[in-house]
Amino acid sequence: MSLRSLRTLPLAAAAILLAQPALAHEQADVGGGLAAGLLHPLTGADHLIAMVAVGIWGAQLGAPAIWVLPITFPLVMAFGGVLGILHVPLPMPEVVIALSALVLGGAVALRLKLPFAAAAAIVAVFAIFHGHAHGAELPRSANPLAYGIGFVVATGLLHLCGIVIGTLTRWPAGERIVQGLGAIIALLGGYFLLHSLGPSA
What we know:
The protein has 201 residues and is mainly alpha-helical.
């Protein structure tokens, strides 16, 4: 190793040491917030199944619901997330979240055909409560904007999964599978609802 290389080693080491705290701060505030937001919708079964059900129901209803419902949910959910971050109380959020899985799963199982405006309104109401729960559970070290972007993106991906599942309805056997899946979602929603109304709620 040359003398010149030896002289640059202390400078390089100092630069690395000074850069590490900034990197750690970035991870905790922005990267950590984004990762937490992306993972949060996947950690609660009640959230996950309801969001998949939105995509399936949109696919069953067809255009424009197939795209508008999965767009409406994350946008309104972001508003609910702000309410949660600000600790604005909502009545019985866990009950409504469980009810959302029951209702949306039931809509899929019954292949419920509602006017588009009514379907969008139902989805929007449930989205506020889901968003509120995400916002209320924001980690203290997380950047709220990054966290919000994360859970909105994750929700959109879950809706997309639901849309893909919903396309199975083009075939008779696929239709039965989708309706059976809707029934399972509704049953799980009913279980979560009973749990949320129990003594521990």
